[in-house]
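User: I'm writing a short report section on ligand binding and want a predicted complex to refer to. Could you take this sequence and s-citryldethia Coenzyme A and write out the structure as tokens? A short remark afterwards would be nice.
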Amino acid sequence: MQNGSQTEQPIPVTAELQYDGRTVTLPRIDPSMGDHGIGISRLRSETGMVSYDPGLANTASCRSAITYLDGENGVLMHHGYAIEDLAQHCVFLEVALLLITGTLPNREERSQFTRLMNKNSMLHEGMIQFFDNYPENSHPMAILSAMVVSLSSFYPEIAGPISEVPLDETVTNLLSKMRTIAAFSYKKSIGEPFVYPSHKLRYCENFLNMMFSSPVADYQIDPVVETTLNRFLILHADHEQNASTTVVRGVGSSGTNLYASIAAGISSLWGTLHGGANQAVIEMLEDIRNSGKRVKQIVEQAKDRSNPFRLMGFGHRVYKTYDPRARIAKQSCRELLDHLGIGRDPLLDIAVELEEAALADDYFLEKKLYPNVDFYTGITYRAMGIPTNMFTVMFALGRLPGWIAHWLEMRNDPEQRIVRPRQIYVGQKPRAFVPVQERG
Ligand code: SDX
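Assistant: Sure. The structure tokens for the complex follow:
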């Protein structure tokens, strides 16, 4: 079975599985690009066996038209548009609409979407009181997940079946309010009053204003910061069937509403192996800076299989070359630091030295471990004044349109059913019950 590479000879339309003297013919599933698949829906009924693929590294859970990844060549496209073009020429809301509708919006569509985003940017005052009861040191990801699932209580009329309400109301309600919740959780953490969204500001301007404006200081939005933030949200907007997107699809497959499905995705993203890595990268770089550890020492530590330490921001399940998003993030990081007059950022220097040391080391080259999207994003957010514990919230804000697009695609896919995998049971065989008085 070819892996989707172009070949002159016609490739077989089926695969044959031979086992225990029997042959099972399985259909080939054809892509528009990339890997072909083998359909195993009949595997158990015809062989009595199930497939086994921990982490689902070799298993396609769906057919999807939203994002294409080529991990060997570092290619990332959304509905056919290269991430490099989108990051260079679009604002985040354009890419959000592209992911959800499949087309880049025209001027009228953009204006209509912006109007709805403004209309839906406020939080119900009843929700705002929730913030009073969170401890000051609450992690903003905990607040975000809880507040997003609560949207379905405060806005039940649009948390229902998507078919009953205009899609753009539900989508803009979520996209706009999640941005407000994120900014409010930051203000809560520093004990400052909330700054409400303004209908006069664009998506990223509004976020920056809600984050950094205050009654006692005039806050001027730096256009380069706004452009960089747009670009970073675009870099995070979607990434095919990653862990949190798989969770959103899985939770939605049981009929759960969009808000509760997204809240589950936020929780999955929080993990340090996934979106939480951007916070872990900065903590790792600060530890290197504060401890005086040598970069070489850190690289050796990451290679030591007996040591649970891993080089955060390095490695990827799909990319076996440089993550194209990391390349863009690294360049934008440098441009922003230069623009802000930060010049030499010791953490950026350490990150670059770490990258050079790792990419000169056979362990990383043989295992094809390169910087991923999380390696340079934290340094950039830090330069914008965003605190470390908000980095994964920034990832969630970027990923939200991708989650929504996948949830809708799953709901509209006639092949999709409730997610319910099988298992290989390795537990106890049947045994007689022992009454409590006879137990040792
Ligand atoms: C994201 O899926 C997506 O698309 C995710 C994402 C998205 O946009 O949604 O791209 C966002 O989550 C990026 C990844 C952020 N996480 C990190 O930076 C954490 C550090 N990286 C790793 O923990 C790891 O690389 C993963 C989790 C990203 C990928 O894990 P895999 O695919 O399960 O790979 P693995 O753990 O089986 O590792 C393969 C080998 C192992 O060695 P051996 O057992 O073969 O001897 O590579 C080693 C690992 O020990 N390895 C690392 C390493 N990552 C893998 N060794 C040192 N440092 C690392 N970072």
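A remark for your report: The CA atoms of residues 93 and 203 lie 7 Å apart. Confidence is low (pLDDT under 50) at residues 1-6.
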